[in-house]
């Protein structure tokens, strides 16, 4: 990081199109062009914006969600695919880092996925929400520790979490320990009511203070017509209003610009990156304010794969004193050979 640098960032509060992925993607590309016209170097979209956040699962009983759930499967994003290609191309054209939330389909499972595109158009990070919240567990699978990483981008070191992952202090600390400079937060918006907006604000401001980084947060928006399309019940419709807090927070925990809490809009701010060191000089949670000999975090960053090929490790003859193969699963390979030898001895 160059401490004299100023980075212009943007967060978009925007309504998806609840009828098709294609129409929502058109809104994505229009928002990117709009942010580029304003000189943004980083643009953040809301949680699972493409094709849309599964609002239906919050107000409908599970037995009635099958049709909408299947429709979400049909409209979900495959990574890589045409949608990631389009966003990557736009990022490269405008020299912009873009963080997009999508419903990712991986064969028979959907995931709440955050995609980080660098300014050259490359997909630097695909991470999946590690624990879907409440109603979301009927919709998405669980992510893994492979996504809990901070990536180097044209605007600095960027980390990302979705929604109530910010209530998991160890997930936040995993990113803090990797010295994130800009933290991207994404929430659905138009959910729960005003108390949700208050909770979002408390959460992102605290993370900025604790991490000593900037936080750029985007929430979604639903129109009254869209709310009525999700449910005709006036009582349930109340649960689909409010809860919007698109905001940009400085390392001291203050708003850089006033937040957006209603309607669609684009929030733009210039970040003085020198403020990171000014904050950390007083309190660096993973540096001089840490006590790693007392408190530390262990992160399993391996992808959670349903199948691991162990044939090569088991086929290799055991030679006493020979070092294990240099693989990510060296420990497991060693255990596998030990199990094989034990099986032979039992014959």
Automatic annotation (TrEMBL):
Q: Which UniProt keywords apply?
A: Hydrolase
* Naturally occurring in which organism (per UniProt): Inquilinus ginsengisoli
EC code(s) of this entry: 3.5.5.7
Cytoplasm as UniProt keyword: no
Q: Where is the composition biased (Basic and acidic residues)?
A: 329-340
Q: Give the start-end ranges of region Disordered.
A: 317-347
Which SUPFAM superfamilies does this entry report, sorted A to Z?
A: Carbon-nitrogen hydrolase
NCBIfam families for the chain: nitrile_sll0784 (TIGR04048)
Protein name, per record = Aliphatic nitrilase
Enzyme type, top EC level: hydrolase
**Could you tell me the superkingdom of the organism this chain comes from?**
Bacteria
Query: Which lineage ranks, top first, belong to the organism behind this chain?
Result: Bacteria, Pseudomonadati, Pseudomonadota, Alphaproteobacteria, Rhodospirillales
Keyword match Lipid metabolism: no
Query: Can you give the residue ranges of the CN hydrolase domain?
Result: 7-273
* GO molecular-function term, one example from the UniProt record: aliphatic nitrilase activity
Family (UniProt): Belongs to the carbon-nitrogen hydrolase superfamily. Nitrilase family.
Family matches, as PANTHER family: CN HYDROLASE DOMAIN-CONTAINING PROTEIN, NITRILASE
Identify one Pfam family in the record: CN_hydrolase
């Amino acid at each position: 990081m160059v401490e004299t640098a100023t980075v212009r960032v943007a967060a978009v509060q925007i309504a998806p199109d609840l009828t098709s992925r294609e129409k929502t993607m058109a809104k994505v590309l229009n928002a990117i062009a709009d942010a580029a016209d304003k000189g943004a170097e980083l643009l953040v979209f809301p949680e699972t914006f493409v094709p849309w956040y599964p609002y239906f699962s919050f107000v409908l009983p599970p037995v009635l969600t099958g049709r909408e759930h299947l429709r979400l499967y049909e409209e979900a994003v495959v990574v890589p695919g045409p949608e990631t290609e389009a966003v990557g191309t736009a990022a490269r054209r405008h020299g912009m880092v873009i963080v997009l939330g999508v419903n990712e389909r991986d064969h028979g499972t959907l995931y709440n996925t955050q995609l980080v595109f660098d300014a050259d158009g490359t997909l630097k990070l695909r991470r999946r929400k590690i624990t879907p919240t409440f109603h979301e567990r009927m919709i998405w699978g669980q992510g893994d520790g492979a996504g809990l990483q901070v990536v180097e981008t044209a605007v600095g070191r960027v980390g990302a979490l979705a929604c109530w992952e910010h209530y998991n202090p160890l997930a936040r600390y995993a990113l803090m320990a990797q010295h994130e400079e800009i933290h991207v937060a994404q929430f659905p918006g138009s959910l729960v009511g005003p108390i949700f907006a208050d909770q979002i604000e408390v959460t992102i401001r605290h993370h900025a203070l604790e991490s000593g980084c900037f936080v750029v947060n985007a929430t979604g928006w639903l129109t009254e017509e869209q709310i009525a399309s999700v449910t005709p019940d006036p009582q349930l419709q109340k649960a689909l209003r409010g809860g919007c807090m698109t905001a940009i927070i400085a390392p001291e925990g203050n708003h850089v610009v006033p937040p957006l809490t209603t309607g669609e809009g684009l929030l733009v701010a210039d970040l003085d990156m020198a403020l990171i060191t000014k904050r950390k000089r007083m309190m660096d949670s993973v540096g001089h304010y840490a006590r790693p000999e007392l408190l530390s975090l262990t992160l399993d960053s391996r992808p959670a794969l349903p199948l691991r090929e162990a044939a090569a490790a088991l086929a290799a003859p055991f030679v006493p004193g020979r070092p294990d193969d240099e693989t990510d699963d060296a420990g497991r390979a060693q255990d596998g050979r030990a199990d094989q030898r034990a099986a032979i001895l039992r014959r």
